[in-house]
Amino acid sequence: HVQLVESGGGSVQAGGSLKLSCTASASAYHDNSMAWFRQAPGEDREGVAAIYTADGTTYYADSVKGRFTISQDNAKNTVYLQMNNLQPEDTAMYYCAAEGTWSTYGLVPGDFGTWGQGTQVTVS
Fold it and tell me: Which of 15, 25, 38, 39 sits in a 20 to 30 Å window from 96, CA-based?
């Protein structure tokens, strides 16, 4: 049974930082693509960052480049999203996703098969 457990959301002031974590079952983590998406109220789900756990290749949406960093810990089957210089427009529910594909053209929610429950990030 594939499972993703997210943590790390919260409320911060503009310019602050948060670090999200997503721990996956082994089958969902190893040699797989994992990603972070976000969805603000009334908006479509947006791909933020992705990582291919086999070799660490990463992708970032233009809106977060230079501010967000996705990383992995193979010993813990965990992917992180370090978010710095957060802005009010980053406010959204953040979702971890696994068992998907992505390209340099971007992240598509429909290309990922497994999702976490989401963690709220609020920037004021």
Answer: 15
